[in-house]
Amino acid sequence: MSSRRSRSRISDDQIADLVSKLQQLIPEIRNRRSDKVSASKVLQETCNYIRNLHREVDGLSERLSQLLESIDSDSAQAAIIRSLLM
C-alpha cells in the first residue's frame, strides 16, 4: 500500500502550480494588483466563485423555465430555444 500512496502523492511544486493556475482563472484574484496571494485565499476565492456560478446557473435555469412555460410549444420562439439548448 505504501507504494500506491507514493504514486498518488502530489508534490509541493505541483500544488503551487495548480494554485497559480486557479489564481489566473478566478476574476476576483486575477484583477488584483498584487501577485502575492496565499494558497488558502486562492482556494477560498475559488470556492466563492464556484458558489456564485452555481447561483447564476440556478437563476438562469429558473428564467428559462419561466420563459418556456410562457410561450406556445409549437411557436417559432420555442423552436429557436430548443435548437439553442441542443
TrEMBL record:
Positions of the BHLH domain: 1-53
InterPro entries (alphabetical): bHLH_dom (IPR011598), HLH_DNA-bd_sf (IPR036638), PRE (IPR044293)
The organism's taxonomic lineage, starting at the top: Eukaryota, Viridiplantae, Streptophyta, Embryophyta, Tracheophyta
One Pfam family, short name: bHLH_ILI
Gene3D superfamilies per UniProt: Helix-loop-helix DNA-binding domain (4.10.280.10)
SUPFAM superfamilies named among the record's database cross-references: HLH, helix-loop-helix DNA-binding domain
Name of the protein this chain belongs to: BHLH domain-containing protein
Source organism of the structure: Solanum commersonii (Commerson's wild potato)
Chief place of localization: nucleus
